[in-house]
Amino acid sequence: MGVAHGQARLESEEPVFQRVVLKIGGEALMGDAQYGLDQKAARRIAEQVGRVHGHGVQVAIVVGGGNIVRGFQAAASGGLDRVTGDYMGMLATVINALALRDAIERQDMQCRVQSAIAMAQVAEPFIPRRAIRHLEKGRIVILAAGTGNPFFTTDTTAALRAAEIGADVLLKATKVDGIYTADPLKDRAARRFSHLSYLEVLKRGLEVMDSTAVTLCMDNKMPIVVFDLFADGNIERVVLGEPIGTRVDGVDGEE
Fold first, then answer.
1. Poorest-confidence range of 10-14, 173-177, 182-186, 225-229?
2. I need a labelling partner for 167 at 20 to 30 A (CA). Which of 53, 61, 102, 236 fits?
3. Is 244 left (phi over 0), alpha (psi -120 to 50) or beta?
4. Residue 58 pairs with which residues in a beta bridge?
C-alpha cells in the first residue's frame, strides 16, 4: 500500500490500537457529487483502510447512508412515516457497505459485510462472535443496516458495535479536524478541543455524536477519536498514536 504524501514508513512504528471501529458518514462516499455514490471516494477510503490494515490492525467499519437518504429528514420533509424512513436509511447503509466492500476488495484485502437486517443474498447476518472471528483472520468487516431498529443513528450503531466486538477505540471520521466550540465552517472564532471527557461533551451539548452514542461509550469506557477523514493518511496517524483530532474519554478534558 502507499503512504501519505511525504510520510516515510518507519519500521519501528507500532499501532496503539489493535482493534478499531471506524465510523464513516455516507456523505464521505459522495466525493464532489451532490448525491449518491462516487466510487473514487470509496477507493480513497479503501486505500486509507489498507494502510491501517497493513499494520496488523483489525478494522470494522460502520458506514452511514446520508448520501442516499436520512430517515428522520425524509419523515420531516415529506410527511413520510418516521419508522419507514428509518428503515429506508438502514437499507441505504447496505448500499454504501457493498460499494465500500468492492473498493476494499480491489485493494486485495478480504472483506465481509454483516447486516442487522436479514438479506442473505447480499450480506451475512450480524453476529458478534462471527465478526470477531473475521477480524482475527485479517478480514475487514463492514457493519451495515444500523442496529436493525428505527430511531437509532449510525453513531449509536458504531458505539454499540464497538462495545459488542471489544474494540479498543471508536474512530469518528468527519469533514472537520475535531470537536469545536462551535461549527468552524460557520464561526471563524470557533476553537478546537484536543481532549474532552464524555460528561463535558454531554453537558456542553456538542453535536459530534448523539447523546445515546456518547453515553454508550461512557458506560463501556470506549474512547472516541474525532478527526478529519479527508486529510490523506489521517486514519493511519490516529492508529499510530499521533495527537490529531479530538479524543473523548473518561478523563476530565479542557475547560
1. 10-14
2. 102
3. beta
4. 19
Q: Do 94 and 123 meet the contact criterion of CB atoms below 8 Å apart?
A: yes
| DSSP reduced 3-state for 182 | coil
C-alpha cell at 201: 461533551
Question: What CA–CA distances, in Å, run from 138 to 112, 150, 153, 233?
Answer: 11, 32, 28, 20
Residue 25 is placed in which grid cell?
458518514
Q: Of 189 and 142, which is predicted with more confidence?
A: 142
Residues whose CB is less than 8 angstroms from the CB of residue 12 and which lie 6 or more positions away in sequence, other chains included? none
Which 8-state DSSP code applies to residue 10?
Answer: P
Q: Does domain 19-249 have CATH number 3.40.50.620?
A: no
Output the pLDDT for position 125: 98
Q: What is the 3-state secondary structure (H, E, C) of 20-34?
A: EEEEECHHHHCCCCC
- CB distance 145 to 63 below 8 Å: no
User: How distant is the alpha carbon of residue 96 from its chain centre?
Assistant: 13
**Domain extents for the chain?**
19-249
